[in-house]
C-alpha cells in the first residue's frame, strides 16, 4: 500500500454495531501500513459497538430472533474476544440452539470494539464524545461538525450511522399522546424496556393494548409476564399476580409472524442447494436491470425450484401452479394469501416450525428467502438501477419479513400459552376501529370490543428519510445533501455508502450506511449486514479518496 499521508481522520455519527463493522473493515485494510487512525465518535449513549438495540443494560427478556448458531459475524482481525460463539461458550452459554438476549450480544460487541481499538495492531486515537452532532459543514480542510456549541474537525471522512434517529410520532400516536395527557390513560413505547417495566409495575388489574403484532410485541409480552415475576413451564404460563388484567394486541392485518424452524436439523431441510443459490444471484442481477413491472419475474422464477423441491421432501401437497399463484399474489398484495383466524394461524405456524405439519408455500418461500439474504444484499447493494425498480424489490423483501424475520418458536409458543391462560386476547386484533374514551381507548372489530387504559407502541417507525426530524438530518435535507432514493425511502447513496445529493452528485467523504439508506440498500435490519460487504466497500472508498493504492 502506498500513501500520501500517514493519518486518516474519521468521524462516526452513531457508534453501534454498524460503526464497529465499518471501523473493523477499515482497520483490517490499514494493518501494518503505519497509518494512524484519528477516530472521533459522536454518540450520546456511549455504547460503542452495541448501540441502543443491544444495550448490555437491558433486560434478558429482549432476545435475538436468530439462534447462536446463526450469528455469523467473525472479526476481520485476530482479536482477544474471538467470535460470538467462543465468547458465549466461555460464559457458559454455548448452546448453539439458544436465542441469546440482545444484552449478551451487546456486551460482546462492546468488548470487540475495545479490542479493536486497543489490540488490532493499528495506532487508533479515539475521542468519544457523549453528545449528538447538530450540524455538518464542508470546509477546505475537510468536514466540520458542530456539537454542544463546539466545532470539531476537520475530518477526512464522516460516516452517518444513525440507526433509528429521532422521528416525530405518526398522526395516530400523536393524537393518543395528547389524549393520555388529558386523562388517566398511559401511552408508552416498547423500548427502552427498563422504562416499560418500571411503568408496568403499577398496571396490575389494568387492561393494556399493544399496537403491533411483530417481533417487538413478542418482547413486550415477556416484559409484561416473566418481567413481572411470572413463568412459563411445560407450555403453561404461571402468573405472579402482578400482570395486567388483560393484554390486547392488534395490527393492520391481524396476523402473527411465522416462527423459525425448531432446530438446526429441521432448519437445514430448507437450505437451497449451491446451484439454486447461484441461479438466485443471476436472477437478482437480471432483476436490477429490469423495468419495475418486470423486476420480480426472474426472482420469483428462481424461487420455484427450491420451493418445489423442499415442499415435496417435507410432504407438502402444493404444485408448481400453486407456488406461482402464491408468488403472484405476494407481488401485488403481500399477506393476502393468509386469511386464517389469528389463533389458528399461530397454531399452524408452530406446527410447521416443529415439523409436525407440512410447510405451506409461504413458509417454504420465507425460509428459503431468509437463507439467501446475503446474496440478495450483495447483488442489490452494489448495483445501479431505476428508483422504481429498487422500490419494487425492496417492497417484496419487506413483505416476506413475516416469514424471513420470524420469531423464535419459543416466542410463538409463549404467545399461545398466554392466550390459553386468558391473559392475552386476539379478539380485536385485525385493524380495529379505535375510539378515544374517558380514561383510555375503545377498540372494536365487527361485533367484538374491548376498553384499555394503557397503550404500548410496538411498531418501529419506517426508515423514511423525509420523516426524520433530528436536527442534523434536517439541516442536511434542507441543503440538499441528503435526499430520498424514492418517495418514502431512505437516503440515496452510492454502493460504497457515499451520499448522493439532490443534484445527483456525490458528497465526497460524507457517507451513510444502514437502515436509513433503505432503497439504496436492501435487507439492512440484520446484524450480519453490519459486518458485510457494504462496510467493506465503504472502507475501500475511504482509502481510494485518501490516495492510497491497495494491493
Give an overview in words.
- The chain has 551 residues and is of the alpha/beta class.
- Helix content is 37%, strand content 17%.
- It is built from 19 helices and 19 strands.
- The chain has a six-stranded mixed β-sheet, with helices on one face.
Number of strands: 19
Give a short account of the largest sheet: 6 strands, mixed
Overall geometric form:
globular
* Overall pLDDT score: 95
Q: Which spans have pLDDT < 50 for at least 5 consecutive residues?
A: none
Roughly how much helix do the residues carry, as a percent range? 25-40%
CA-CA gap between termini:
6 Å
Provide a brief overview of the structure.
With 551 residues, the chain is α/β, with parallel strands linked by helices. It has helices at residues 17-30, 84-90, 102-119, 171-181, 193-200, 215-223, 264-267, 274-287, 296-313, 320-332, 342-354, 361-371, 373-381, 387-399, 401-404, 409-420, 471-478, 527-530, 533-545, and strands at 7-13, 36-42, 123-129, 135-139, 142-147, 150-155, 157-160, 186-189, 207-211, 231-233, 236-238, 246-250, 424-425, 433-437, 440-445, 448-452, 454-457, 498-500, 506-512.
Amino acid at each position: 500500500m502506498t500513501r500520501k499521508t500517514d493519518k486518516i481522520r474519521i468521524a462516526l455519527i452513531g457508534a453501534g454495531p454498524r460503526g464497529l463493522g465499518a471501523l473493523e473493515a477499515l482497520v483490517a485494510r490499514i494493518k501494518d501500513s503505519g497509518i494512524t487512525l484519528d477516530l472521533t465518535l459522536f454518540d450520546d449513549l456511549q455504547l460503542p459497538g452495541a448501540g441502543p438495540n443491544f444495550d448490555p443494560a437491558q433486560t434478558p427478556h429482549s432476545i435475538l430472533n436468530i439462534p447462536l448458531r446463526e450469528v455469523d459475524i467473525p472479526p476481520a482481525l485476530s482479536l482477544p474476544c474471538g467470535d460470538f460463539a467462543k465468547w458465549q461458550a466461555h460464559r457458559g452459554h454455548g448452546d448453539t440452539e439458544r436465542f441469546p438476549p440482545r444484552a449478551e450480544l451487546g456486551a460482546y460487541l462492546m468488548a470487540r470494539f475495545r479490542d479493536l481499538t486497543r489490540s488490532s495492531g493499528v495506532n487508533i486515537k479515539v475521542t468519544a464524545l457523549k453528545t449528538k452532532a447538530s450540524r455538518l459543514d464542508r470546509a477546505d480542510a475537510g468536514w466540520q461538525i458542530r456539537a454542544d456549541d463546539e466545532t470539531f474537525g476537520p475530518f477526512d471522512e464522516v460516516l452517518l450511522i444513525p440507526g433509528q434517529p429521532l422521528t416525530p410520532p405518526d398522526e395516530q400516536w400523536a393524537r393518543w399522546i395528547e389524549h393520555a395527557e388529558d386523562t388517566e390513560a398511559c401511552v408508552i413505547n416498547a423500548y427502552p424496556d427498563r422504562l416499560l417495566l418500571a411503568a408496568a409495575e403499577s398496571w396490575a388489574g389494568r387492561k393494556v393494548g399493544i399496537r403491533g403484532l411483530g417481533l417487538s410485541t413478542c418482547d413486550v409480552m415477556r416484559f409484561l409476564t416473566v418481567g413481572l415475576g411470572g413463568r412459563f413451564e411445560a407450555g403453561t404460563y404461571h402468573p405472579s399476580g402482578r400482570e395486567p388484567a388483560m393484554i390486547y394486541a392488534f395490527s393492520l392485518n391481524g396476523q402473527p409472524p411465522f416462527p423459525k424452524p425448531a432446530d438446526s436439523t429441521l432448519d437445514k431441510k430448507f437450505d437451497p442447494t449451491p446451484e439454486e443459490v447461484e441461479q438466485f444471484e443471476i436472477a437478482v442481477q437480471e432483476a436490477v436491470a429490469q423495468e419495475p413491472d418486470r423486476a420480480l419475474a426472474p426472482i420469483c422464477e428462481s424461487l420455484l425450484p427450491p420451493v418445489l423441491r423442499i415442499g415435496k421432501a417435507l410432504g407438502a401437497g402444493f404444485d408448481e401452479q400453486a407456488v406461482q399463484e402464491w408468488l403472484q399474489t405476494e407481488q401485488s398484495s403481500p399477506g393476502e394469501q393468509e386469511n386464517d383466524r389469528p389463533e389458528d394461524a399461530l397454531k399452524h405456524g408452530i406446527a410447521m416450525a416443529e415439523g409436525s405439519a407440512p410447510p405451506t408455500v409461504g413458509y417454504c418461500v420465507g425460509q428459503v428467502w431468509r437463507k439467501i439474504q446475503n446474496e440478495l444484499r450483495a447483488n442489490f447493494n452494489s448495483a445501479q438501477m431505476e428508483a422504481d425498480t429498487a422500490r419494487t424489490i425492496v417492497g417484496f423483501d419487506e413483505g416476506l419479513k413475516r416469514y424471513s424475520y420470524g420469531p423464535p418458536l419459543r416466542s410463538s409458543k409463549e404467545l399461545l400459552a398466554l392466550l390459553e391462560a386468558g391473559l392475552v386476547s386476539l379478539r380485536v386484533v385485525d385493524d380495529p376501529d379505535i375510539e378515544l374514551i374517558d380514561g383510555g381507548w375503545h377498540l372494536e372489530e365487527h361485533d367484538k370490543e374491548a376498553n384499555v387504559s394503557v397503550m404500548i407502541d410496538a411498531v418501529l417507525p419506517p426508515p423514511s428519510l423525509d420523516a426524520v426530524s433530528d436536527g442534523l438530518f434536517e439541516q442536511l435535507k434542507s441543503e440538499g445533501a441528503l435526499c430520498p432514493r424514492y418517495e418514502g425511502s431512505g437516503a440515496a447513496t452510492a454502493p460504497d455508502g457515499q451520499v448522493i445529493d439532490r443534484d445527483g452528485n456525490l458528497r465526497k467523504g460524507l457517507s451513510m450506511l444502514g437502515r436509513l439508506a433503505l432503497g439504496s440498500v436492501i435487507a439492512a435490519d440484520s446484524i450480519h449486514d453490519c459486518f458485510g460487504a457494504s462496510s467493506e466497500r465503504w472502507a475501500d472508498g475511504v482509502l481510494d479518496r485518501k490516495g492510497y493504492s491497495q494491493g
